[in-house]
Design goal:
Elements: H1 2-58, H2 62-69, H3 82-90, E1 97-99, E2 102-110, E3 115-120, H4 125-128, E4 133-136, E5 144-147, E6 166-171, E7 176-188, H5 192-196, E8 202-207, E9 213-221
Parallel strand pairs: 5-8
Antiparallel strand pairs: 1-2, 2-3, 2-6, 4-5, 6-7, 7-9, 8-9
Length: 222
């Protein structure tokens, strides 16, 4: 009789355990699907953006390429100097290319991890599922902040970045900005202002697996 009562009392605990297991499996499958979908979105967008960059830059004449590279042409007083162009860039927004109803301002690459990712012009929670997003600033003004999910296809490698490693950003006009990692910060998830605070040329950030912290990587322009 006592054994029968104990068995009955144990049934709810077993059912709760099964429900929790099912929820964990469902969450795991959902996360894997999100990872897969993010990887497919990155691959598809990168194909388009790389083709766009090659097609647009390769068809420029030599003078355009000189200007883009920032080479001095002070010998000609009618042509702006590289410093003038730098000032003008700092005051304008970054050009964007539209792919499947999203605007992209460029490509961020972390060569040490063979990672290349498109960067969406403006961030939103839905956009972050497809690719990293500009959270604030501009590469031209020297205060670009890029946010990304901790998907393996996105910014999962950020915690592993060491000082001295390089990060490369290429805008949609073919301008290349090479940065060096100077350090990392771990911030509370609510510390939104702190992510943008400071004098860094580039900031990359993502969330920890449990979403309670932000991993922030600071970089300087080389």
């Amino acid at each position: 009789m006592k054994t029968h009562i104990k068995t009955k009392k144990g049934i709810p605990a077993i059912l709760i355990g099964l429900v929790l297991l099912a929820l964990a499996l469902t969450l795991g499958v959902y996360n894997l699907y999100g990872e897969w979908r993010a990887l497919q979105a990155v691959r598809e967008t990168m194909r388009y953006l790389e083709y766009y960059l090659v097609d647009s830059v390769m068809h420029e004449d030599s003078e355009d390429i000189k200007t883009r590279a920032g080479k001095s042409m002070d010998a000609n007083p009618d042509v702006k100097t590289s410093w003038d162009r730098k000032q003008e860039r700092a005051e304008k927004d970054m050009p964007a290319v539209n792919v499947r109803d999203r605007d992209y301002i460029g490509i961020v690459a972390i060569p040490g991890y063979e990672l290349e990712l498109p960067v969406i012009s403006e961030w939103s929670y839905s956009a972050l599922k497809s690719a990293p997003c500009r959270y604030a600033g501009s590469a031209y003004a020297g205060d670009l902040v890029i946010a990304g999910h901790n998907y393996r296809a996105h910014f999962a490698c950020l915690p592993e970045l060491k000082e001295g490693e390089q990060v490369v950003f290429t805008d949609m006009e073919g301008n290349v900005f090479i940065y060096e990692v100077t350090g990392q910060e771990i911030l509370n998830a609510e510390a939104v202002v702190a992510v943008k605070r400071g004098d860094w040329d580039l900031t990359l950030f993502t969330c920890t697996g449990d979403g309670t912290r932000r991993i922030v990587v600071r970089c300087r322009l080389l």
